[in-house]
Amino acid sequence: MKKIITTLLVVLGIYTAAFSQTKGATEFGINVGLNESTVTTGDNQTNSDYRVGFNVGVSADYYFSDHWSFKAKVVYDQKGWNNGYFDDGTNSYTVDYKLNYITIPLMANWHFGRTRNWYLNFGPYIGILTSAKLSDGGGDVKDFFNTTDGGLDVGIGVKIPVSDRAKFFIELNGQGGVSDMVKDNTGSALRNSTSNINIGINF
Questions:
Q1: Which 3 state secondary structure label does DSSP give 169?
Q2: Are 146 and 183 in contact (CB under 8 A)?
Q3: Is there a smaller number of Cβ atoms within 10 Å at the N or the C end of the chain?
Q4: Is 4 exposed, middle or buried (0-12, 13-18, 19+ CB in 10 A)?
Q5: What is the spatial distance between Cα 161 and Cα 152, in angstroms, rounded to a whole number?
Q6: What is the C-alpha R_g of the chain?
Q7: Is the torsion defined by CA of 87, 88, 94, 99 positive or negative?
Q8: Residue 193: strand pairing partners
Q9: How far is CA 190 from CA 82, 89, 145, 181, in A?
Q10: What's the pTM value of the predicted model, to 2 decimals?
């Protein structure tokens, strides 16, 4: 049994080693994932009621070496938070905020492990607000929010070769906003905070 397991590990090692990337290579990818989003305030308070949503995106990853690459992504992101406060000037409500963005992360990727199939990524992102609605009747509140959002994106992932050209990947990411989401805000700043798990294919 030990010999069989050892043989399988050796074969798998040879197989995956063939997929190590080299300088000048470019990988394209598609992904889908699950988001958990909320907001933090300027005094470092975090809303504990998360909005669960999804994301779907495409990416391009250019390798400068077998250790380093530059990845750019374009992602449709469902963000927001639950059990929030809204005041229309006459009445105040407890509502869920449903904010959707096109998010563009620009990240450095560090690839590690014997076959470089594990990676860490980090870098800035910019988000473009596409819609903002309330849960009660879907009231449109897009005019209350800034049309762009910016922050930092960090993550870790692993790629698993599935053919001579394709790799399945699993990735965990976190995003922290550094800009105020609320337009002309006179109170404490609100910033996006999102974590997600993604799966996809690189080719």
A1: strand
A2: yes
A3: N
A4: exposed
A5: 29
A6: 20
A7: negative
A8: 38, 176
A9: 14, 19, 10, 6
A10: 0.86
Condensed to tens digits (0 to 9), the pLDDT of residues 58-113 reads 999 999 999 999 999 999 999 999 998 777 667 777 899 999 999 999 999 999 99
d(Cα 93, Cα 112) in Å, to the nearest integer? 49
Backbone angles phi, psi at 66, to 5 degrees: -75, -10
Closest residue by Cα to residue 98 from 115, 111, 114, 84: 84
What is the distance between the alpha carbons of residues 62 and 23, in angstroms, rounded to a whole number? 8
177/192 Cα distance (integer angstroms): 5
Distance of alpha carbon 138 from alpha carbon 117, whole angstroms: 43
Q: CA 177, CA 188: separation in Å to the nearest integer?
A: 14
In angstroms, rounded to a whole number, what is the distance separating the alpha carbons of residues 56 and 126? 16
Structure tokens at 63: 């390798």
Q: Which amino acid is at 91?
A: N
CA 30, 34, 39, 44 dihedral sign is negative
